[in-house]
Design goal:
Layout (H helix, E strand, L loop, with lengths): L4 E4 L9 H15 L4 E3 L6 E5 L3 H11 L8 E3 L6 H4 L5 H10 L4 E6 L6 H4 L4 E5 L4 H9 L4 E2 L14 H8 L5 E4 L10 E4 L6 E4 L5 H8 L3 E2 L27 E6 L2 H17 L4 E5 L11 E4 L6 H17 L4 E5 L7 H11 L4 E3 L1
Parallel strand pairs: 1-8, 2-8, 4-6, 5-9, 10-11, 12-15, 12-16, 13-14, 13-15
Antiparallel strand pairs: 2-3, 3-7, 4-7, 5-6, 9-10
Helix pairs in contact: 1-6, 10-11
The structure holds threonylcarbamoyladenylate (TXA) and magnesium ion.
Amino acid sequence: MRKTITEQIRQDATTFTPGEEAAIRRAGDLICGGGLVAFPTETVYGLGGDALNADSSRKIYAAKGRPSDNPLIVHICRFSDMERIVSRIPETAVQIADAFWPGPLTMILPKSKAVPDETTGGLDTVAVRLPSHPVARRLIEYSGGYVAAPSANRSGRPSPTSARYVLEDMDGRIDMVLDGGTVGIGLESTVVDLTCETPQILRPGYVTQEMLAALLGRVDTDVTILRDDSGQAPRAPGMKYRHYAPKADMVIVEGEAGRVADYINRHTAQDKARGEKTGVIGTRENLDRYRADVVKCLGGRKDEESIARNLYGALRQMDEEEVTKIYSEGFTSEGFGQAIMNRLLKAAGHRVVRV
Ligand code: TXA
Ligand code: MG
């Protein structure tokens, strides 16, 4: 096992002290030399390696324990850098970049020969993202401009929203972590495929279907995103895995707040009698109602940004506290809520009870 170095960068820093600058430069040198560095982005922490180096991509898959058919996102820091890795830039990509880059959105485009098959899991398309987080952008610049970065979790675990969670999964498996505090959004970027006639959302995120449709006119959403009964395989290879999952069994309970709490309390009482450790993931308004062993608050019911930011941390804390049975409130699947529900459904293996 190698030692993973941690370097601190002040949370929300937009300019860097000489010490921070040196740390980011060292991280960039590590990536240029074929090493792996985890770093904050505005969505979740990424596990970065040189996207144009096949060996670096192999190392990323190995460090994550990720199936190698699940392609990586290439992170850039300037729109013009796209020219080297994409064979054709459609007008929609320019429009989307003008509206949402830098930011939490990834575009799927036809790849150029510069991108090794290892990075794209053998696909002839490449996922490209230009993040807004200042640490991410500086690191990409120091890394030669092209950083392949999946979320910095072991495959199947919730994406890390702080450096502590990165180390929980990756300590000794990667060279360095740039610790920039907790991330702002907390859920991964919106993935939109621009290689089909009508742009299609393959993974919902902070940039919503409504926002994209307002810009482009028609935008589709992969039918597998909010249901698992379509009989179709998701078009983003990563969406087919039971991702984002805590170790415990999890069920989402939807309905009027009082009935939801009654259902959960009845079931947690039965679970406890069977020796299970029970947990509830809920919102501030309803917290007092629950009688489970562990109750985690995601924030106010109407505060979607807080719910998103706290979700993965809550799932990880359930594991830390060795909860074996989790009940979660459900949320609307409109707007940004669609991304929240998509991740919750995946964590719960699509188990939903309506009361
Ligand atoms: O917010 C994010 O996107 C974070 C941060 C670190 O930037 N990264 C991230 O990467 O979530 P990852 O590897 O955990 O998820 C990438 C998703 C997967 O579902 C993958 O299958 C899909 O994007 N994807 C990547 N390349 C693709 C391609 N060429 N075609 C279709 N889907 C692709
Ligand atoms: Mg991931």
